Amino acid sequence: MIRKPIVAGQFYEADFELLEKQLQRCFSHRKGAGGLPVKKRDRQVVAAVAPHAGYPFSGPCASWVYKAVGETKLPDVYVMLGVSHNGLPSAISIQDWQTPFGTVQTDKEFARAVEQNSNLKVDERPHRMEHSIEVQLPFLQFVNRDYLQNLRICPIIISEDIPFDEAARGIVKASKMTGKRILVIASSDFTHYGVSYGYTPFADNVKEKLYGLDKGAAELIAKLDAYRFLEYVDDKGATICGKHPVAAAVECAKLLGAKKGRLLQYYTSADLMGDYATAVGYAGIVFEKTADVKGEQ
C-alpha cells in the first residue's frame, strides 16, 4: 500500500509544476537560502531540524536545511522523524509515500532493523493523518531530483511513550547492522505563541521575547544537549511541538560523529504577517561531521 498525501493543496501545492515553482520561491525568498543546492555534494550533514508548517510560512526556513542536505552525498536512507499532533504513540512506517512529485520508497529492510534494535514498532495508524513527515518529502525530492530512483526514507513518529535516546540508539544500531549510511531529519516548528495556542507568557515586546525563548532552545540543540533542551522546554513551557523528534535527532547526530549543530535560519510567522498576536517560530538547524572525525557510520 501507498501512504497518500493528506495536506497537498493545503500546506503545499498539489500540482507538480505549481509545487516546483513554490519550492523555487522558498529558496529565493528574502528569508530563504538565496539559491538552490550546488551540484558538488561534499558537505557532511548527518542530521537536521526543519519546520513543517505551510510552505508560504516555513518554506523559506526549510530551504536553508534542504540546501545543506542537497549539498551532502546522498545517504542510503533518510530517517524522517515526525511528531504526532494527535498524541498518538511512536511508530515506524513501511509504506511508500506519495507526493505530487511521485512516490518515495521506504527502505523496509532498514525499518525492520530499527524495529529489531529498539522498542519502536511498525504501525501505519499514527502516520495516516499526520502531516509532519509528509511536508518534508517534496523538499527532499526537490533537492534530490537527479537521484530519485535511489531515494529511500524511513518515516518514524517519535512520541513521549519511548525515551528519545533509546530511539536514537536503535536507529544508529540499525545503520551499523545494515551497513547503510543515514541522514536524520527531525520535523518540528518552534514556539507557538498566542491565545489560540493557549500560550501567552508575555504580552509586551513579544517579538524580542519570543526570539529569545526560541534562541535559548536552539543554542542547547546546537550544543548537542538533548537532555537540557527538553528540560528547558518543560521549564519555560515552550510549545515546541516536535521536541521529542528533535531530541532524538540531536542524540543521533552525536552518535554519528557530529560535534555541534548550526542554526542556519530563524524567524516567526509574524515576521511575514506583521502581527504578533499569533506567531509560530521556525528554525533550520544542521549537524555536520567535522574534518577531524574519522570513520564511517
How would you characterize the overall build of this protein?
The structure is a single chain. With 297 residues, the chain is α/β, with parallel strands linked by helices. The chain has one domain (2-289): Protocatechuate 4,5-dioxygenase, Chain B. The protein contains nine helices and eleven strands. It has helices at 16-28, 55-70, 108-116, 137-143, 164-178, 206-222, 226-236, 243-255, 269-273, and strands at residues 2-3, 45-50, 77-82, 91-92, 96-99, 102-106, 152-157, 182-187, 192-193, 258-268, 279-289. The radius of gyration is 18 Å and the shape is globular. The chain starts with a strand and ends in an 8-residue tail after the last strand.
Q: How would the blueprint of this fold be written?
A:
Blueprint (H helix, E strand, L loop, with lengths): L1 E2 L12 H13 L16 E6 L4 H16 L6 E6 L8 E2 L3 E4 L2 E5 L1 H9 L20 H7 L8 E6 L6 H15 L3 E6 L4 E2 L12 H17 L3 H11 L6 H13 L2 E11 H5 L5 E11 L8
Parallel strand pairs: 1-5, 2-8, 3-7, 3-8, 6-7
Antiparallel strand pairs: 2-11, 4-7, 5-6, 9-11, 10-11
Helix pairs in contact: 1-2, 3-5, 5-8, 6-7, 7-8
